[in-house]
Specification:
alpha/beta, Rossmann fold, seven-stranded mixed β-sheet, three-stranded antiparallel β-sheet, 30% helix, 19% strand, binds S-adenosylmethionine
Amino acid sequence: MPAEQQAAQPSPHMLRVYKDDKKGATAFFRNRPFLNTVLKLLEKESDMPSAFFHACSIGAEPFSFVAMAKMLMLDVSVEATDIEPAFIEVAKEGIYPNAVLKGMLPSEKYWFNAKRGGKTQIKDELRRKVKFQPASSLIEPLLKEYDAVFAMNVLTYLSPEEQTLAIVNLAKASRKYLCVTAFHPDQIRSDMEFAGFEPVMTNQEEIHNAWGDRVREGGAERGTPGYSWIVPPYNTTAPDYDWRYCAVFARKS
Ligand SMILES: C[S@@+](CC[C@H](N)C(=O)[O-])C[C@H]1O[C@@H](n2cnc3c(N)ncnc32)[C@H](O)[C@@H]1O
């Protein structure tokens, strides 16, 4: 997407949800170039590609994926889960504050119905397309295979050793694409190479810079909690830049 077109898009409205000590910040259409890129890749793979969203929080991410797929006239089969059962219950209802609509284009707002009390609900047509599975951790193996597996903005919650294990298990469940962001960046190359995946380079810079709230000049200092979360703008002189600024990885053929 050209820069001027991207600038004209509304910024996603972040939903900050909490359950006890668990945080589940998410947004609808959080990274449009990212979702669009994965859908275009999947379109080439199958008439009805399958996807699994781990760490889906309250559902904004899988619902955005299905909405964008429908706008591309692509039928998809989608499952999702999170470690926190309360977030999955919210996702199943698909009811959100009206504020989420402020971050959307008219074509995106189409997928919501007005509810009483300042709320809006995902249309049944989308709600039925996402099968929410019982809560589980992404460290545990998945039981099926999918064309694409997603674990977005969650690896930062794990230790570096747990990230290696999670990537091995997510990779086993992915026939073609493995999508991750907010990972421990210094080891993402070795974790992905070990799992047999390589970066997709089509529009990596556009996707990276579209993380908006996470991209800040200078990034965060190594060794601090924000190191995998707050990232610097795309920089081809950084070591392993094609791995550390990547969100879409493909199984090596
Ligand atoms: C920052 S939110 C990201 C939500 C969504 N993926 C996105 O990018 O908008 C992180 C989510 O990861 C979930 N989570 C944390 N640890 C997890 C684990 N070990 N396995 C699965 N989900 C986990 C949290 O409950 C939370 O919903």
